[in-house]
# Entry
Amino acid sequence: MGDPLYVQKGFGLKAQIQDLLQSDYHSQLVDVIRERGHRLTIAGPGGDVELRLAKEFGFCYGVDRAVDLAYETRRHFPQKTIYITNEIIHNPYVNKRLVELGVRFLDGQDGYGIEDVTQDDVVILPAFGVKTTVIDELRQKGCVLVDTTCGSVMNVWRRVKQYAKDGLTSVIHGKYAHEETQATASQATALGGHYLVVRDEGEAQLVCDTITGGPGALSAEAFVHKFKKAISPGFDPAKHLERVGAANQTTMLSTESLHIAAMFGEAMRTRWGKDAGADRFRSFDTICSATQDRQDAILAMGQEGGLDVIVVIGGYNSSNTINLSAMAGTFAPAFHIDGPDEIRSPGEIRHQPYGSKERVVAQGWLPAGPIVVGVTAGASTPNRTIGEVMARILEVRGIDASQLPATAGSAPRPSLETRAMATPAGSRELPII
# Structure
């Protein structure tokens, strides 16, 4: 018998929630393009518009599982108060739907905190995981915990916990304020270990120089000041950088994570000799496969060439989407948006440039005449949002997406795009080239 107050595998209600999930997250337009080899060219009044959808995009297995578990939880406990510790994933539409289903967020923004939870309530743990101290506090409440933590995240936890047990400091490539990184770091401190979070190769170089005595080496005081928000309590660089293990936030840019790990390996060999082995340094590739697949797909799309613009869809606080935006921008003008409303016209789009935390309005983003638009989406983005964005791109070029043909053997579902996919009676289908 499992713990009735701790649920990881769901409630066996997948069939009962399937229609709601289909209505909330499916897209007929995405199905159309996928069925046609991820390409769709449509003759429009201003010239042909070709949409190219990346071969891997949108919801990954871990996100699918988290959303499914949240919906099953609501169905299984229709009368109970249900909380979630934070955003289940970094997508505004998904989190808004949970609120509409009656799920309360414990992030303080809506006035709810852990102190409001009672033993009669249910608390969902999001896909990023939560800090061990939060889990301990909730367990003391005696409430039901529904854990949707992604398996890829838990794989990193296993590495970090082993580092802590073996006396190695976990050097985590990630964002210190990100929920996943905070949860991962807490796994180390829960076992008496230490951690250091580095945001990028620049910060990693400072740490490596401190290890080797290189040109960027920091004094102990300067080091603690520089990384004060990104180190474990009591961190002593002279002591806690003698033996390190590399880990990462699973949604970071994979090439950068691998390079940072290599930097630390080289620094440890420089400091301790070329024979410094696993006792001094360990590393494992813990970038999640879905993140890697989406990065590989945008790389393949870009290398194929011919793109006039790339639209990257996902939450503005989604790390994996931000990294897709960085990669896309090396091939064509790239615009990271979170939904169709950011596309105001063919001349104006509101987006978040890579490296910025603020949205800006770009003019003349969509060229006139025949165009090729690449589309990709982060692992937290539902097909519905992707379909709505593509429909909006077509709309501002004078093309009504509601007149596109349905996929073979499927019926259009009027609720799936805000600009309905159902073909009006008597209308003609648009020419697909």
Notes: The first helix runs from residue 14 to 25. The two ends are 58 Å apart (CA to CA). The chain has three domains: 27-60+290-403, 62-150, 152-287.
